[in-house]
């Protein structure tokens, strides 16, 4: 009788624990939705004065921000969106192959001791504040990379992206993209490394047993397994690049044009860096205008994550 009572009590206790855990899990999920809704509502409410204000006041504010280069919100935000996407895409293009190579080296080529050390280094790089990267880029990289960009403009200037003359100092899109690539490199590397380490061991051993080389084994068993994870890792890196502020603000010479001239200064600007630069001296309508550009950045980030999720779901099939 006592044993039956004990079993009944344990069962009841287990069900109670399940209910508590389920409630906490539901609460955490709802909290994420509430936070997202709160951010969206804040951006919409604070951007409303721009949307409902007089056209003359809006034009005066935007003209003061751009020095007369733009007269309405679309003319103002368009080049910022272009610059944000261009710089972030270049950073991802530079960082992704290097990050995948480092992750493969850590997971499949390096010795256990070396891979442990490299993993610590990668995680440490991911924790460095963006302002430190900005200082390094502005003080160290900009003076030393100018000569390299001059050579690129000299020998590859026939290609529109590298058309010269290269700016001196090199406070350009190309230099900022390099800095952002260094910033997102540890994020992509860390996620990719963890995915490669989870690749099925039996499939790898089977490929090697059939006579495949190590690279062929990685190509056949590791990379297909980690395809969806690599997409997620790259989108995490792209998300940080899209929203990066201080590094871009401290290095880039801003411009308001739709330009692909990566080696020339005063061509492009990002939304986040523009908000940081204009916010201290903005009036109420100016703040509303800047928040409206922040809303556009929020929508871009949401769209990028949505597309990445769809691609990841298809890659898993």
From TrEMBL:
Transmembrane segment boundaries: 24-45, 80-105, 117-136, 142-161, 173-192, 287-308
A GO term, aspect molecular function: phosphate transmembrane transporter activity
Localization terms from the record: Cell membrane
InterPro entries in the record: MetI-like (IPR000515), MetI-like_sf (IPR035906), Phosphate_PstC (IPR011864), Phosphate_Transport_Permease (IPR051124)
Main localization, broad class: membrane
PROSITE patterns documented for this protein: ABC_TM1
A GO BP annotation: phosphate ion transport
Protein name: Phosphate transport system permease protein
Alphabetical list of PANTHER family matching this protein: PHOSPHATE TRANSPORT SYSTEM PERMEASE PROTEIN PST (PTHR30425), PHOSPHATE TRANSPORT SYSTEM PERMEASE PROTEIN PSTC (PTHR30425:SF1)
SUPFAM superfamilies, A to Z: MetI-like
Main function: Part of the binding-protein-dependent transport system for phosphate; probably responsible for the translocation of the substrate across the membrane.
UniProt similarity note: Belongs to the binding-protein-dependent transport system permease family. CysTW subfamily.
Domain of life: Bacteria
Residues covered by the ABC transmembrane type-1 domain: 81-308
GO cellular component: plasma membrane
Gene3D superfamilies referenced in this protein's UniProt entry, alphabetically: MetI-like
Membrane topology summary: Multi-pass membrane protein
Alphabetical keyword list: Cell membrane, Membrane, Phosphate transport, Transmembrane, Transmembrane helix, Transport
Keyword Cell membrane: yes
């Amino acid at each position: 009788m006592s044993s039956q009572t004990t079993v009944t009590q344990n069962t009841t206790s287990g069900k109670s624990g399940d209910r508590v855990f389920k409630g906490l899990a539901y609460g955490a999920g709802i909290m994420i939705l509430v936070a997202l809704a709160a951010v969206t509502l804040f951006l919409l409410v604070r951007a409303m004065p721009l949307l409902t204000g007089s056209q003359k006041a809006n034009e005066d504010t935007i003209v003061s921000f751009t020095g007369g280069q733009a007269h309405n919100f679309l003319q103002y935000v368009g080049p910022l969106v272009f610059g944000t996407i261009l710089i972030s895409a270049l950073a991802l293009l530079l960082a992704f192959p290097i990050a995948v190579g480092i992750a493969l080296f850590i997971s499949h080529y390096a010795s256990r001791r070396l891979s442990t050390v490299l993993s610590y280094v990668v995680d440490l790089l991911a924790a460095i504040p963006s302002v430190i990267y900005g200082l390094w880029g502005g003080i160290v990289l900009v003076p030393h990379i100018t000569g390299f960009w001059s050579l690129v403009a000299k020998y590859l200037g026939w290609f529109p992206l590298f058309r010269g003359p290269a700016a001196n100092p090199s406070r350009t899109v190309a230099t900022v993209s390099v800095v952002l690539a260094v910033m997102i490199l540890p994020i992509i590397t860390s996620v990719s490394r963890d995915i490669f380490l989870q690749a099925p061991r039996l499939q790898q051993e089977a490929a090697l047993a059939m006579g495949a080389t190590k690279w062929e084994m990685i190509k056949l068993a590791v990379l297909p397994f980690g395809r969806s994870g690599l997409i997620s890792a790259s989108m995490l890196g792209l998300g940080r690049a899209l929203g990066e502020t201080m590094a871009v603000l401290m290095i880039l010479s801003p411009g308001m044009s739709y330009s692909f001239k990566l080696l020339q200064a005063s061509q492009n600007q990002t939304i986040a860096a523009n908000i940081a630069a204009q916010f201290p001296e903005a009036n109420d309508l100016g703040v509303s205008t800047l928040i409206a550009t922040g809303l556009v950045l929020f929508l871009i980030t949401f769209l990028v994550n949505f597309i990445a999720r769809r691609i990841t779901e298809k890659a898993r099939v």
